[in-house]
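Hello,

Following up on my earlier ticket. Below are the two sequence lines again, exactly as submitted.
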Amino acid sequence: MGSTIDPMPVSPTELAVSGVDSLEDQLAAFFGTHYERMTRLASLICHSGVPAEDAVQAAMEQAWRRRKSLRDSSRLRWWLDRIVVREAIRMNRRPWWTRFAAQPMYDEARLPADPAQEMTAERMALVSAFRTLSVEQRAACVLHLHLGYAVAETAELMGAPLETTRSRLRLARRRLRAELGEDES
Amino acid sequence: MTTDVDDRLRDFLADEGGRSTLAAPSFEEAVGRLAQRLAPRAQRTPRRLMVILAAALLTAAALGSAIGIGSGWLRLPLVIDTPSIPTNGDAVLEVGLHYYTREGGVQGIVARVPEPTRIHAGLPEGWASTGSGLTSEPDEPERALAISFWAVDGVSTAPCTDVGEGADPPMMRTLDGLAEAFTLWWTGGAPSEMWPAGPPPGQPRTTEPTSTTVSGFRARYLEVRIPGMVDTGECPSGYATWRNADGVVRRHGPDDVSRIWIVEVGPPDLVYGNGVPQTPSPLLVIDASSGGEPSPEALAELADIIDSLRIEPPRGEMP
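Thanks for your patience. The regenerated structure is below:
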């Protein structure tokens, strides 16, 4: 308490755990190794909402401040993913009164970067459909379908009951099918 | 169950994930910003003043809670803690059902029963404990049947809009009161005292509660069905149906079915004063949920599991 918190080293080491002594060094190295992955995770959850870098920044800050609460360093990645996911959800959760506001129209300017200009009809449809999901549904889809976490793990990462997570996935699938014009099967 | 939409979404997410990192600031930039945010502030409120303020706030909160609990204005909560590590085969869950009560007739002092509730369950082949409950086909959300345990603290009167606090009258402290809360607000579609013009679209439908026993304790059984025809755009976050004592909200999706047992985990004889229960027993809600109607085989397995449940109520001084 009251001691100065040193900023993490700018040059990350290759691996977070081996050969690194203190938790601070491990965490700093881990940030460096997994920064891109964290950005990808936050970006997919935030999508066109709050900028992903803000969510990652907030998550790194949270992780740094709460680093003493990490009991098992072998679960560092899990722990950090959980913080990133929850920060991304928290920052993108809309106040209830905004639900009555009109949904924004398709806005290409807010889409993720597309340097190759590959705005195909398929991508456009999926971008539009994915945007209709709630941030919690997007997070469940990203964790389960993209990162391959089991549904129970997804639930734990999001801090939600298993049944709620399952319902979110079902709701997301149903919504996407409807948006993409797929038949229910 | 892998679906076509899953495959399309996987490809899309892999593609989008790659694009997203191109636009993000570099790690060095991020570290620079983080260092600024973590740097100690130049001026801080004197520590002594902060301690005094915190102590004053805590005292005010404690007094307010004591008055609220003593007058019956606040409901004494039941809390389900983080459960134990998953096990296979016969499962023993420690759901940490805690009971709060007054001690020695002194109003406003609450005590927590030190031991969690233990639930022993015999699991058929293909079932597993997830830590927070029991499930079949844990990674196939469309087909799975899952059992979870709740200390319901509030039932939402408008689950679709998710804007209300939910209703939580004192009568929900009792077995029949909680059963009534589910059925009174979520009717079968007919006009009722609560909804004279008929329930609004999107309200869950429930069956009438029936009396039963679970693990030898008095219980009520009812079924909750979420309409499937409602445009999901109307309920973008699903249906916030009830809230646990720890604040976790149960959300349902369209076509979800929950088979619910409300179990009075405590002494069956309540003490009544002026017709109002003075020492309500802790209630455990068992939610067996599925997306759509489960198969007859799954229902048979569910019945076996419910029959196998052995609930050890929280130990300690009970009212």
